[in-house]
Structure formats: structure tokens, C-alpha cells
Specification:
Helices cover about 35% and strands about 20% of the residues. The protein is an alpha+beta fold. The protein folds into 2 domains: about 1-50, no CATH class; about 55-240, Transferase(Phosphotransferase) domain 1 (Transferase(Phosphotransferase), domain 1), CATH 1.10.510.10. A hairpin with a 6-residue loop joins strand 9 and strand 10 (about 145). The protein is globular. Bound molecules: adenosine-5'-triphosphate and magnesium ion (MG). Magnesium ion binds near residues 94, 95 and 128. Adenosine-5'-triphosphate (ATP) binds near residues 49, 51, 97, 128 and 130.
Length: about 240
């Protein structure tokens, strides 16, 4: 659930400044304190449902849960590709949130067919569309309007090193020929490859010495070996996944 409350042009209220500082003290923020904004700064407030904790800090019971989360993210991207020619373009592990759930399955409808994906106690939410791309039909003749962030104008995004995340920005640029308007769902595959790599090499698990954990780590490794051969999240979930 997202609610947008337009606030217009005014002072950023002291209540919001206090909340920002409280968040910064408790969790730390890499963003600028809004207190530095000018008095006539325009802003809006977005109220979001609490979607849980980010993938980077989450501790899974075992790789079975991580695998279930991975499938939810892959199907979510696939539905976005089909409906809006959606590419996330920045799906690092701070942009996947995890909330506990008792629901047994998540249901995704793709090309008129329902797919039931196990939750395994975790509900995935994809957030942060700052770099994302989608397009909407404009005319019956098939013309579309694309909404995207022109990353060709970004000086710093492609220079960072030290984590696979930063390589993914360069791989996306190569695939798109630096033309960010185009629909190239392979960028979703690149981020899924990054996600499955994190699940194998960097995520935290409560129990690692069990058969089930080892079984699902092998499954994740097999996905990691295969996934770059698919052209889109749709193609991946429709041809690769048995669950
Ligand atoms: N709906 C939500 N529920 C719970 N936590 C959230 C939610 N939305 C955002 N957060 C928290 O706030 C953090 C930053 O949110 P978001 O990614 O939208 O902002 P950002 O400034 O674009 O971040 P970055 O530039 O680091 O990607 C998330 O990593 C998450 O920890
Ligand atoms: Mg973010």
C-alpha cells in the first residue's frame, strides 16, 4: 500500500526532521539530512507499508527460504516485464525487502496462467525505482511512451569497483549500448544473477549444516550457472523453474 500526500512548497516540518534524525541515529543513513534543503524546497510525502528488513541484513533459516525469496523476486520482475516492459535496473540487496508471512504461497499471473510460488515464511517486496524503466501503450498502433532515468548522463555510477553490484551497472550499459530508453529485460536477468550470487556467497543463514540447506545451496548454484543464458525474467521463470 502506498499513499502519496502532496505537501507543496513549505518548510520541511520539524516532526519530519526529528524522525529523519531518529532514523539516522538508529540505523544510519547515507543520504543528506533534509535540514539542508532551502525553505522553498518542493517535496512530497510517500507513505509506504512496512515491507520488512533488507536482504543485506536479513538472516534466513536456511537456503530453502532464500530460494523461495529468489523465486518471488524473479516472478515479480517477470510480471512487471509483461505488464509494463519493466526493468528495475538497481536491484542491489538494499532494494529487496523481506517480511515474515504465514501465507503458504504467493500467486503470480503470467500470460493468463497462475503460478503458485512457495513463501517458506518470507514475503519479498522490490523497492526503489529511482533507476527503473517502464513503458506504457500510447496508441492502438503500438506506440509506447517510455519512462526511464537517462543514466548516460551519470558521471559516477559506472566508475565504482569492489562489489559485483558495480559491475552490473557496466554490464547493463554495455547491453543497452548506453541507450537507456530501450526495453532490454536482460538487465533484470543480470540483477537476478547478482541476487543468486549473494545468496550463495554472502547472505547469513541460521542453520548451514543441514541436508536441506545444502540441497538448496546446490539448487541456487545451478540457477547461477544457467541464468545468464536467458533473455528475460519471463523466459527464465517460464522455462527454467520447477517448484
Ligand atoms: N516500504 C518499506 N518498508 C520498510 N523499509 C523500507 C521501505 N522502503 C524503504 N525502506 C528502507 O529504507 C531504505 C532506503 O529506501 P530506498 O531504497 O527506497 O531509498 P534510496 O535513498 O533510493 O536508497 P539507495 O540509494 O540506498 O538505494 C531501504 O533499503 C530500506 O531499508
Ligand atoms: Mg535503495
Amino acid at each position: 500500500m502506498t499513499r502519496t500526500i502532496p505537501v507543496g512548497r513549505s518548510n520541511y516540518t520539524s516532526r519530519l526532521l526529528d524522525l529523519w534524525e531518529l532514523y539516522d541515529e538508529c540505523k544510519g543513513s547515507e543520504n543528506d539530512n533534509p535540514a539542508i534543503l532551502p525553505r522553498d524546497q518542493q517535496f512530497i510525502v510517500l507513505e509506504l507499508a512496512n515491507a520488512g528488513q533488507d536482504l543485506e541484513s536479513y538472516q534466513f533459516n536456511s537456503a530453502e527460504q532464500a530460494h523461495a525469496l529468489f523465486l518471488q523476486v524473479a516472478f515479480g520482475l517477470a510480471v512487471g516485464e509483461e505488464a509494463f516492459q519493466f526493468e528495475h535496473r538497481d536491484l542491489h540487496w538494499g532494494n529487496v525487502l523481506i517480511a515474515p508471512t504465514e501465507q503458504k504461497y504467493a500467486t503470480f499471473v503470467l500470460r493468463g496462467r497462475s503460478h503458485r510460488v512457495p513463501r517458506c515464511g518470507v514475503a519479498a517486496t522490490i523497492i526503489d525505482y529511482s533507476l527503473s524503466r517502464l513503458s506504457l501503450p500510447l496508441t492502438a498502433a503500438g506506440e509506447r511512451a517510455a519512462l526511464y532515468n537517462d543514466l548516460a548522463a551519470d558521471d559516477t555510477l559506472f566508475d565504482a569497483v569492489g562489489d559485483y553490484q558495480f559491475t552490473v551497472y557496466r554490464l547493463m550499459r554495455d547491453r543497452l549500448g548506453n541507450d537507456w530508453k530501450n526495453f532490454e529485460p536482460y538487465t533484470n536477468i543480470l540483477w537476478l544473477h547478482y541476487t543468486v550470487d549473494k545468496m550463495i556467497t554472502a547472505l547469513r543463514y541460521k542453520r548451514t549444516n543441514t541436508k536441506i540447506h545444502k540441497h538448496y545451496i546446490s539448487k541456487l548454484k545451478a540457477i547461477k550457472d544457467r541464468i545468464l543464458s536467458y533473455g528475460s525474467a519471463v523466459q527464465f521463470v517460464l522455462t527454467d523453474i520447477e517448484y
